Amino acid sequence: MSAPFGRRLVVTTIAVILAVPAFFIAMRAITAWRQGYAWAEMDWDDKGYTSLTDFLRSVDVGKRPVDVNGQSCNEYFLYREGMTVKVVCPRGRN
Predict the structure, then answer these.
(1) Judging by DSSP bridges, how do beta strands 71-78 and 61-68 pair with one another?
(2) Are 66 and 57 in contact (CB under 8 A)?
(3) Around 16, how many Cα atoms within 13 Å sit in the side-chain half-sphere?
(4) Predicted local confidence at residue 94, as pLDDT
(5) How far is 35 from 13, CA to CA, in rounded Å?
(6) Of 89, 63, 68, which Cα lies nearest the Cα of 78?
(7) Which of 31, 35, 55, 94 is the most exposed place for a label (fewest CB within 10 A)?
């Protein structure tokens, strides 16, 4: 095996290995973006800001209307388990 061929094989192998996770992350990001949530909505653990991790987690989170003490609110839940992530009610309305 000649040196240029061997080097090219190594570079191609590394590129293929890195392409698989890059493709997965890109597809997850596109799907998260298509969920339609506002950036501020995606702060799933109420830490005050939305991180890249929160953005990517939005793929797994659904939104449904709920009634909380007679007030119309939005509940965010995990698709897989149905567990509530957070409930957001409009402020100033009772």
Answers:
(1) antiparallel
(2) no
(3) 6
(4) 44
(5) 34
(6) 63
(7) 94
